[in-house]
Amino acid sequence: MDYTYYPGCSLESAHKSYGDSVKRVFSHLGCNLIELEDWNCCGATMYMSVKETVGFAISARNLALAEKHNRDVVAPCSACFTVLSKTNRYLKELPDLHQKINECLAESGLSYNLSVKIRHPLDVLINDIGIDKIKEKAVYSLKGLKIANYYGCQIVRPERGFDDREEPMTMDNLFAALGAENVYYPMKVKCCGGMLMTTYEDVALKLSKGIIETAVENGANCIVTTCPLCQMNVEAYQDVINKTYNTNFNIPVLFFTQVLGLAFGYNDKELGIDTLLTEGVKVTEKL
Questions:
Q1: pLDDT tens, position by position, 73-123
Q2: What is the reported pTM?
Q3: According to DSSP H, which parts of the chain are helical?
Q4: What residue ranges define each of the domains in the chain, with the CATH number in brackets?
Q5: pLDDT tens sequence across 223-261
């Protein structure tokens, strides 16, 4: 199976480990991720909040480039996935906006005809490849991992997508099938504070504290996420949270593809787990 791969800015820089683990997992499963040539920033949420039309045009340029290849687009970053999906939906539902954006794209010799499908890698793993095949490819059991599955607030919203908006279960089902224990985790779609960490740090610290605290209280030995910004806020700010709230958190926060990569037999360096600010997790039981 071939997919167009849209890494986005984060997976090319601060969260390269996420991109590396995505590529290894898909390769292990016999799937080709073909990087979109000449892709640009999705626009993130900042462009949309400043001038929506410009934001849509920046995002739609990627869709126009991807459309030439007639493949689903895999976007691992939650913000990229959300923004590209939002752009796709708005252009389909608002013909006048679609026409306006195509006028913008025409300046660079492009147009977008609304045929691209945006996919999250978790969706592809569960619904295209399937848990049974993933189990067949596993080398190690995830027994011993007690996971708080943290989906974040973006990939399941706003419209109904590949998982439930309030009680997503795709990661839970995947890791349970591979031998892990999923702890009770009512914070799985709560916001980590996002970019508030750079503007209203006190608000974001409080939100991230709740995410960590609930995981620890329910016996998790790791938090697993799908979102680069969530991973950074929840892991990198643990020291600040500890100083602010007199806590003693030290729990690893991994990307779901890193955990899946461990089951496939890849080591910490290959998956970027060695770059974590907290100690990673180990799996030792061979299948």
A1: 999 999 999 999 999 999 999 999 999 999 999 999 999 999 999 999 999
A2: 0.94
A3: 8-11, 16-28, 44-50, 52-67, 78-93, 95-106, 121-124, 131-137, 170-177, 201-217, 228-231, 238-245, 256-263, 268-271
A4: 2-119 (1.20.1050.140), 131-275 (3.40.50.11810)
A5: 999 999 999 999 999 999 999 999 999 999 999 999 999
